[in-house]
Amino acid sequence: MNIFHIKKQLKRRWRRWRRAIWTIGACSLVAIMAWLGMPLSEQMENLMTNEPIAMETWGKLQKAAPEATEEDWLTELKRTDRNRIVHLNKIYTCGEESSVLGIMRPDEIAALMKAHPEWEGRLAAGGDVWIDERINGLSETCSKQGYIGIDKDGNLTLFDGPPKKEKVIRTFFQLDVEMMESALPADVLKQLQQGIRIQDVEEYNSVLSTFSDFALEQTEKVMQQNEER
């Protein structure tokens, strides 16, 4: 790797650290002010919405703020006293699987959530109840035929089967293909094009971590879902 690419990677990593420091600081400040019951000043709100690095953080805070707590949606269930269709969504580190648990009364749903405090529930717009169970592992699809490769648009992508079948499960981020071609051995690029078989969580995380160094700045996410899950 020549000095140009070394400088480029160092600059990219500095941007990540700067974003992480801003995010932690902004979240901490907002959390403290919310705990103290203090409203955000107009200057603070303008800063959070106008600074390029802060826009993503502010958007996430705004998105998270109106979400109902578990007690809110369970209270709504009891208030309406309607039977609901209950879905269980198993969210794996790699892949998801959904099933219908059946039609339940509000007290049955409340008992189910009490028995599984680690589950997260919500009341969907259509009236159904969706419950998320987060699992550190591979879904059956990922375990049997999960491949990470590059799609025709240059995105790092999780496929159901080899990339040539184009059965996309999930798109992660767009890659700097030119930079990869100059920095990585030809056999690594060929393996990525053919698809890297994913057989366990460690391998899944390792592949994502490796290629996140070549993510384009505007689409880079470095798998925050994976850390949350």
Topology diagram in text:
Layout: H1 3-36, H2 42-50, H3 52-64, H4 70-80, E1 84-94, E2 96-104, H5 106-115, E3 120-123, E4 129-138, H6 140-145, E5 146-150, E6 155-160, E7 168-174, H7 177-183, H8 186-194, E8 196-197, H9 201-212, H10 224-228
Parallel strand pairs: 1-4
Antiparallel strand pairs: 1-2, 3-4, 5-6, 5-8, 6-7
Helix pairs in contact: 1-3, 2-3
InterPro entries: BofC_C (IPR015050), BofC_C_sf (IPR038117)
Transmembrane segments: 20-38
Pfam family, one: BofC_C
Commentary on this structure:
- By secondary structure, this protein is α+β, with helices and mostly antiparallel strands.
- Among the domains are: 67-134, Ubiquitin-like (UB roll) (Roll); 140-228, Alpha-Beta Plaits.
- Helix content is 51%, strand content 24%.
- A hairpin with a 4-residue loop joins strand 5 and strand 6 (155-160).
- Helix 1 (3-36) crosses helix 3 (52-64) and helix 2 packs across helix 3.
- The longest helix is centred in the N-terminal third of the chain and has 34 residues, at 3-36.
Q: Reading side by side through the largest sheet, how are the strands ordered?
A: 2-1-4-3
Number of helices: 10
Helicity, in percent? 40-55%
> How many angstroms does the end-to-end distance come to?
34 Å
By CATH, the topology of the domain at 140-228 is Alpha-Beta Plaits
Please write the string of helix (H) and strand (E) elements.
HHHHEEHEEHEEEHHEHH
Q: Spans with pLDDT under 50 lasting ≥5 residues?
A: 1-8, 36-68, 218-229
Pfam families: BofC_C
Domain Bypass of forespore C C-terminal: 138-212
Keywords: Membrane, Transmembrane, Transmembrane helix
Organism: Paenibacillus macerans
